[in-house]
Amino acid sequence: MDVIFIPVGRDEWHLLQHLGPEIKAVTKKISHTHCFSEDLALSDDTVIDRLKLAFKTDPSSTICVICDAETRTAQQLWTRIIPVLRDAGYSLVPEDLPTNGLILDQPDYHRLGIWIMPNNFDPGMIEDFYLRAIPQEDEKLRRSRDFVASIAGLKISKSTYRVWLAIQADPVGPAIAMSVGQVSRQRGEIPIFIQWLSKLLQLPESR
Hints:
Layout: E1 3-6, H1 10-16, H2 21-27, H3 44-54, E2 62-68, H4 74-88, E3 102-104, E4 111-117, H5 126-131, H6 139-149, H7 156-166, H8 176-179, H9 190-200
Parallel strand pairs: 1-2, 2-4
Antiparallel strand pairs: 3-4
Helix pairs in contact: 3-4, 6-7
């Protein structure tokens, strides 16, 4: 299967490497340098421009979009994407982004999946996606939030998750934390995300 990941950032790319062997096998066949640019701001316009370019490729390929809602709701970004999909010829585009992720599978068109972090609804980013999988009573999470709250000008979610990782007995990277069991694949939106991605890629659900 030919899969186009757009506009996956480095953190999202690393996430895909730690969701299970079937998903990792798909991503290993793709050169991630063609999926994102470290020097490019992944703005709404970037998402839309790359989506339009992807529509010009062989329609037998699958398009997977993973991006952050940031400070607005996912629906606000989705509202900008809707006319792009309809202009491209997709006929069953919902007005509201499904909270379990979008998959459009229309004959003679790209199979298309869209997930807007953290959960296709709330404002936030990939770090919120990870934080939702950590028990809220976790003492290190409380300490991390208190520390970040004491410093002005930080991105709260991003900084909280990075501090939480740093104070673990064996600190690892954001996505590796799932592979070593510090962040559970069974909590938060992670199981829903895995189910969505596995369905999009037509794989058995990863465990």
